[in-house]
Amino acid sequence: MLRTNADKLVKISVFGEIASPVVGRSVYNISAEGAPVVLPGVGGIKYNVRVGDPACSWEADHVEPGVSVENKENDPRYGQGANAAFNVLSCVGNEAMVVSGDAKGAKGVVTGKHGGIEHVLVDFQPEILEKLMLGDKVLVKAFGVGFKLLDFPDMKVMNMDPRFFEALGPKPNGEKLEVSVTHVIPAAIMGSGLGADQTYSGDYDIQLFDENVRKEFGLDDLRLGDVVAIKDADHSYGRIYKQGAMSVGIVVHTNCVSSGHGPGVTTLFTSSTGKIIPRIDVNYLVKLADSGAKFIHIKALKYKSPKTNVRVIHYKEPSLAANGTIITGGIGSDLKVHFMSNSPIVMVTVVGQEISEKSDVINELIEKINYYAKLEGMSLNHDSAIFYVSENKDLKELLEGIHNSVKNHKETIAMNFHKKLGFLKISGVGLEQTPGVVGLISESLRLKGINIFGILTITSSILVFIDWDKSKNAKELIEKALEDSS
């Protein structure tokens, strides 16, 4: 067990209020391509953008997930010192509690800090978001500033509640520390936020303007709340480029259109001497490899034992003792079939004219779905869109909401739905490079009279939607077909 000074830290109250979205004198942001755009930005209560959601693909610029909180006190002695304290002392993982308004007493958790605007970001459950109002007061029990790892004096830990540290589960490896991450990012693409003289608040941005770099490092699938490693970056006293250094942070806001900006990262660990070793689970690495990340060939992952950790280092490193990245866990070469939902799925079909070219229509429909339920899958072509959505008590309201959207757009003509579907997932390494699997699945079900209402492929998985009452039988048939073909 890692020794820390958590028992010596001070827990102190800080507070702010839910900040309104703001727009400058000019409503336009100028994109890196030179186009003026008008998009949602910082501040407010976000009902459909929370931690765990994609950091990219939104029609947004610097949108902060969940609730944006700021202390607006203006002390004649310290100016905005109360907000500075709110941002410095609040730590990722701290408990936050609403202390005014209709949601008084509700609890959430601090998920990050956004520099420049100087907001603390807090996540609440959806039912709490519905009760919140701009201006509601939020108290944070700040705990974590001064946190140290007693056996790693060269490493700095910041912006992190000790309980969140324990949840991350870093592991000692000699005089170094292994930290689980989702991505390893080169310091060369880090942008806005460089030059700050401290990293106990704020963030700095991952630039995603180069398509080849995005593919090489698998950055298109970044999510809010991802813990990422930044290679050759030292955050000890501000953010600088330093070869051999390593820093780890958490993704706190969405992608941006402005030059030099992108998803923001709040620092959690830093080592100027490279004492941090990023650790990536092999199953996550499969997804990165499938998306085109040039990290390790996907075929090699089939032969990795779960009991053997693998360290990957750059071919230019002069020594095999270089830190590299640790790959943990293992995957079998067999294809697996899983139930993906404990409750039925409803299939909603919307037909129209050139629907795939109307991003505003699709975004509105997805927003309606995410408000009432969970979107499990989607299929889109020129004249129709099919949404596979979890059934729940709000199904009637969901269908009415989609119907209203269909009526309000001239491009959409009609909608239909089919309830009580089951949801299976077939997964395995290199599935998309294995010919005939989709045909094998569909034929095994056809022979037993089981209809397929939808079949989707993504990375190393196939999603199949069938009758709910026949899903158990379908799973057994697919497993047998795959076993017989191997």
The number of helical elements comes to: 10
Count of individual domains:
3
Q: What CATH architecture of the largest domain would you give?
A: 3-layer Sandwich
Low-confidence blocks of residues: none
Total E-strand runs:
26
What is the highest CATH level, the class of the largest domain?
Answer: Mainly Beta
Largest sheet: 7 strands, antiparallel
Any idea of the CATH topology of the largest domain? tm1086 (SG structure) fold
Structural class: alpha+beta
Rounded mean pLDDT score: 87
| Helix proportion range | 10-25%
**CATH superfamily membership of the largest domain:** tm1086 (SG structure) domain
Radius of gyration: 24 Å
| Assembly context of the chains | single chain
Indicate the proportion of strand residues.
25-35%
Shape summary? globular
Q: What is the first-to-last residue Cα distance? A: 44 Å
